[in-house]
Amino acid sequence: MDAGLLAQYVMNGLMLGMMYALVAVGFTLFFGVLDVIKFSHGDVLTVGAFAALATYVGLRMLGLNSSWFELVVMLVVATLAMAFLGMVIARYLVMPLRSAPALNTLLITLMLGTVLRESVRLFYPQGANPKPFPALLPRASIDLGEFNLRLDNVLMLTAGVLVIVGIQYLLNRTKLGLAIRAVAQDEETARTMGINFTAIVLVTFALGSGLAAFAGVMNGLYYNEINFGIGLYLGVVGFSAAIIGGLGSIYGAILGGFLFAGLQTIGTVMLPFASAYKDVFAFAVVIAIMAWRPTGLIREKISERV
Amino acid sequence: MSALLEAHGLSKHFGGVQALDGLDLAVTANEILGLIGPNGSGKTTFFNVITGIYNADAGRVMFDGADVTNASARAIYQAGISRTFQRSRLSLPLSIFDNIMIGNHKRLKQGLWFNLAKRRDFKREFERSYADARALVEVFEPGLAGRMFEPVAGLPMIDRRRIEICRALISAPKLLLLDEPSAGMTHDETAELMNDILLVRKRNKDLTIIIVEHEMGVIERITDRCVVLNFGRKIAEGPYRSVAADAQVQEAYLGAA
Amino acid sequence: MAEKGHTTVWPGIAGLAIATGYLIAMLGAEKQNLIIILLAAGIVAVLAAGWLGLLETVSASFVEHEDALAACAIGAACAVAAVFHDNHFVLLLVITVLLYSVATLGLNVQFGYAGVLNFAGASFFGIGAYTSAVLSAYTSVPHLLVLLIGGLLAAFAGSLLLLPVLRTRGHYAAVVTIAFALLFKTFLEVNDVLGGPQGMQVKGMRILGWSFNDNIEIGKILLSFYMNYFVLSLLLLVGAFVLVRRLERSWIGLNLDALRLDETAAGCFGLDIVRWKITAFLIGNFLIGIAGALFGIVGGFVAPNNYTFADSLILVSILLLGGIGNPWGLMVATIIVVVLPEKLQTIQEYRFLLYALMVIAVLLFRPEGLLPRPVRRYFPGWRP
Amino acid sequence: MSTTPKFAALVAAFILGITTGAADAKDKVKVGFIGPLTGGVSVNGLGGRNSADLAVRLRNADPKSKYEYEMVVLDDECKPNVAVQVATKMAADKDIIAGATHYCSVTAIATVDTYHKFGFPVIVWGAVLPDITYRNKYDEVHRVNGTMINQNDANAELISKLGYKTVAVIHDTTDYGKGHNEYFSKALAKIGQAKIVGTFGVTADQQDFTAELTKIKALNPDVIYFGGLTPIGVRIRSQMDKLGIKAAFDGTSGIVSDAYIQGLGPLAEGTLAFREGAPAEKLPGGKFFMEKYNAQKYDNPPEAYGPFAYAAMGMILDTIEKVGPDRKKVIADLANVKDRDSIVGKITFDDHGQNTVPVITKYVVQDGKFVEWDDSEYASGKRKLPGQK
To answer: Which CATH number fits domain C88-346: 1.20.1440, 3.30.420, 1.10.3470, 1.10.3100?
Structure first.
């Protein structure tokens, strides 16, 4: 296969992986602080994307159309809105269930996901249709043989990487990050260290959900189309990615995200059978990985006192 | 007197921490051995290695004449060692009876066919086990005997301890490992519990006990002999009085304090 | 607690009777407003009963006199069927409830007892259904045997997941079955041998020349052909129920609970963790598979879309709604989950939304499910 | 005490049920409609429902009509399993005389046996898979719209006429997509000018197509043929652009919907698509239909198959007016439909109950509208499709 084509596949894989990683990181954050899986994550992403779209439409109505300005406003609005939504979810759906079995949280957030998804479909104007998402980034592109390098893809990739690095920095280098990690380590100790547990949990959920909104906007910019269903699939994939990477660390999520994207691309390109089998392939590998590394590629340290 | 349990050069480390460091230890049949030492001196680790929760890095363990080094937890239990846990590990939603029956595993028929199809035979076995469990519980707290089918979750700490000890005793083990039975209980409660244990022991003569305990009163009262650990090594051995007097021991405790 | 108050059988019978009457009314109701009224009335009544502690009395009575009440429940099911003897659709619903109950019983053994997560319930259900589709299309295997094979194949497919399932815990275990669920559906869609997304027709059942797909005429009364399937499904459910009950009320049930609640402790008392996890997982999938096989035949049609991850989640949500580990609870939940969205067809587009909101409400305000599992009684009503 | 309110409610409920039940037993006749009201293609389902609803309303408004009609609407979610369930529900309800059913082929093909089993006459209003009418010979099953065979013949013909040489095929792996792939390939082979350089199956809920499209890009075809429905059609078209693929985009009846144009904006320009039957606005009845439809202020447009749903329901109502509310008679009467006028042109059922639609309308998107090819600036040569000779 010629280099240009290869490069193209790599680019596709990277974009996809970045998207998955952003979602997966969210899962890892929630799991970190509360040991819960918030399955509505994917649908929060959807709502975030639609919030951004609505903002765009609003701005257009106001007659403002400088794409950079629009983009910034969209990002800000979507992120803040979802951050708030995330807090609400944490406060009224997740935290009340802390005493109940983990599965209850999983189910309640799944159902919440359905609520969000259905609400978008029913209450967003023509929400059942796929919606065009404005291409606000410069569309310049150079053709290198089979490889068509687009400025907007590069920008998105950079943005995505920056965000992930930012989260990483925030967790490892800041007071807030320290607090989050303390809570993640052990709630009691954190309390005794005088950390406001509830506040940290809410902040973390805000952070993760804001991240989802960002991923949603990225998704929209990349595909120039959003629909009420995007979150469901991204949610499941993001979850799997976080798991195979290892819920223990944020690196796991990132690794998992890019790994899954890689598997799908390989499944389409290199495997003898029809490209439709790529998910069969990808998920089969996921299962295999779980059999091989039961706690993910980057092992979670489970120390049990007996 | 032959040794019931013998450990030779037993070692276990976690990361950098050397929890057990070439420990030699022997318990003779029918004795009550006190295992003491400052926190993190390797007492519980010793239990966990013996009972197959951890594998030893080095060393051998002989029990009742057989080599049980790194045998599985199941094998150890089958061989006749049962234990209690430092932090009570009962199955809270289950009834008192159920929890005790978990300890009775090796004496209950486990076949699918027996359990599913032969309900009459099962009922007989069930009634027999119920009688045993009830009798045992009565030794500790007659009050509990009438509440065999209530969930453990509703019971106070002392009763939970009692149930946990019943769970360990129901299978009539040769060796009983008690990991800080006094934890989370008042002084009197502990004393009461110890008396009950001794009572049970009187009934079946060949019960050997190793007890890990911080309450020195308890140790003094019930143990025939003590082994003092520090940094996974045995630093003293003998009757409580003598080891308590031992300079090295005092230093270890003060150093730890 | 049952030890003290010796409840009589009557509260149980009364509760059963009312519930049956209500169910019949609900199934019979066509008008939207009527359904809404019934729904409201039902909710109010249940809340009131709960508030007056009547629910506890009823469940206590069930704990004490289970065998007698189980018999009554069978009677109740027959009564429902009798009322709607010529109403194809309602009977189909009833059958759906019965077979979903069997499947969730299987799930209950896995998750409720052994604590083995299974988010691919619908997939194993599907394996059963496709088995009967393929066998009835290409072979002349006797149909009752087909059901059995369906169960066995489901169990076999499950055993492919054993290694990862046994090695992983909690959320990690969840992803294994989730991945399998997605994999399974995509696989069905892309391969042509099994009809692809098109799905396959399934022939009606025949046992000793008796065709299940013909209406039955007794004198003047015409019975829907679904009556045949109703009887078979009911038998299946009873069988599954007895199996699961005996399992729970035996040392095996105890083993499963023990390893679910504390593997380490269970290990220290000689439990063979692996053996019992495998046992639970296989028995569970076997039940799910059989139910699926029969359901495939009843529906007369199988397609990948029947067996998506979402459907697996519905099965799991039934488990949680009913009260994990309580067979009675999950049968009640099955009725709600199957019948309600169907009845809410009248408000077409909004029914998923409402269903989801309802589940959320239950999880928030009754996290241990509608009928929490009582402590194990090895022999109902047994006293020393 | 707690149970009394329940009993009261029950009693009330029963009385209510009986009385209301008694009330509408009179010369009210129930007819059915089934379509996808939820899910990715719900717009088409809602458009169809509104159109059928319009037919019923107009009929009820007509003083000459013998009965008062009530339309029972059920949602098949475009899923075969759900479809079989609701079809059973409808067919099993003896009060419902006949139904206009299904936009998605996957649901229509799944339910034909059910309709046959229950002797329930239906007229399919949107699904285009040939097997629906041709696999079996069921008297109950009819279809007012044409099959995908005709449109693919027309499609292949146009492609060849425009002088394209190489085609890459993308189809969703549902029966709909597979069917299109099959018949299009046949048709193209028959003409034997353009050849297919690659075929790609994609799942109906797929989001990312860059991998497939990159492969296609390497094959560098003149045309990308797409057999599938609007949602992924939109995605594929926009991702083609992402990868800088210049080929012409050639779709099927599945993308003939306003949703497609909304979803793509300017990118939709130059997309080809084909649909059987003359466009509503071209027919005398069509104008009338559009006016009435808009008068009802439905919140969705009728979409491509609305007129067919209207025609199907209209035909059902005509038949009931003629032979009375009796399934058997309705089936008997539908057996000999010849040159029946309708807003989609003359309807004639062959022995399989299939409307032999002569006309196929070729569409091309021009300035954000599906324009008939022959009137388009592309046909006149004013504009050119990518690679058009």
So the answer is: 1.10.3470
Question: C185 and C308 in contact (C-beta within 8 Å)?
Answer: yes
For residue D49, what pLDDT is reported? Answer: 95
Write the pLDDT tens digit of every residue in B181-200.
Answer: 888 888 888 888 888 888 88
Look at residue D30 and give its three-state secondary structure. Answer: strand
**Per-residue pLDDT at D2 exceeds 70:** no
Is residue B214 within 8 angstroms of chain C, CB to CB?
A: no
Query: Using the beta-carbon criterion (under 8 Å), do A110 and C190 form an inter-chain contact?
Result: no
Both tokens assigned to B63: 């029990």
DSSP designation for D340: B
D55 and D167 share one domain: no
Q: Dig out the tokens for B107 from the structure.
A: 């004496």
Scan for tokens 């990985």, then name that residue.
Answer: A289
The three-state secondary structure class of D301 is: coil
The strand pairing partners of D366, in sequence order, are: D369
Q: Are residues B237 and B197 in the same domain?
A: yes
**What is the rounded radius of gyration, in angstroms, for the C-alpha atoms of chain D?**
22
Q: Identify the residue among D103, D199, D236, D243 best suited for mutation to test binding to A, counting A beta carbons within 10 A and taking the highest.
A: D243
By Cβ distance, the residue of C257, C268, C270 closest to B83 is C268
Sequence-distant (6+) residues with CB within 8 A of B157 are: B88, B184, B185, B189
**How many CB contacts within 8 angstroms connect chain C with chain D?**
132
Rounded to whole angstroms, how far apart are CA atoms D255 and D305?
A: 11
Q: Do chains B and A meet with 3 or more Cβ pairs nearer than 8 Å?
A: yes
Please write the tens of the pLDDT for every residue from D311-336.
999 999 999 999 999 999 999 999 98
Q: Are strands C206-207 and B175-179 parallel, antiparallel or unpaired?
A: unpaired
Task: Mark out the alpha helices in C191-225 (DSSP H runs).
Answer: none
Global pTM value: 0.87
Tens of pLDDT, residues D105-160: 889 988 998 899 889 999 999 998 998 999 888 999 999 988 898 899 999 999 99
Bridge-partner residues for C135, per DSSP? none
> Which chain B residues have a beta carbon less than 8 Å from that of A305?
86-87
Q: What angle do CA D105, C32, D114 make, to 5 degrees?
A: 30
Cα separation of A114 and A94, whole Å?
16
